[in-house]
Design goal:
About 60% of the residues lie in helices and about 15% in strands. The protein has a single domain, classed as 3-Layer(aba) Sandwich (Rossmann fold). It has eight helices and five strands, in the order βαβαααβαβααβα. The protein is globular. Strands 2-3-1-4-5 form a five-stranded parallel β-sheet, sandwiched between helices. The protein is α/β, with parallel strands linked by helices. Helix 1 crosses helix 8 and helix 2 crosses helix 3. It binds adenosine monophosphate. Adenosine monophosphate binds near residues 58 and 60. Adenosine monophosphate binds near residues 32, 33, 54, 57 and 58.
Length: about 190
Amino acid sequence: MTRILLIGPPGSGKGTQAHRLSGQLHIPEISTGDMFRSHLANGSPLGREIKEFLDAGNLVPDNLTTAMLRERLQERDARNGFLLDGYPRTVSQMDDLDGILDAAGTSLDAVVEITAHDDEIVRRLLLRSDAEGRSDDTEDVIRHRLELYRQETEPVIERYGRRALLVSVDGTADIDAVTVSALQGIEAVRARP
Ligand code: AMP
């Protein structure tokens, strides 16, 4: 049973690593960004509600995000472990997640932070924008998403650090090396007293 969070700025390679780590650890990968994008693509009521936030690179309001995540965590495949990618992104979401896990009588095993410098992030995201055509990968929107990351998400990382759950991995290293460091980091956190 492994419950892990993966936190990192857009363009840090978080999605790629989430995919690899969930495969290696045999736990479902739950990405709130992917869930929102599929609501958008399906044109669901939630999709219509969140479109303006995603297009502008803004955070979807905490209540909508947490409601969606709470439901997802209740699905059978997530009961015995999960890797969360992109949630929590605010201190309020962090409190919500604590409440959800407390109510289920469980807790997190580790929080993996993937780091990268702004210039590298912008370079990678502009490349991705050419490849995938995401509406939120233009330079202005990328810079805005980074600003939100610093303002809203870094305080979350700092708090997990105080709980001794945190391990930081350099996201600009080679893809395989990042995966290995993340796996070693998770083991090291679990071994902490
Ligand atoms: P991502 O794929 O993780 O970069 O997420 C893409 C977009 O989905 C973000 O820019 C937000 O608009 C939205 N989003 C994803 N996760 C969250 C979250 N935890 N809280 C608020 N908005 C989110």
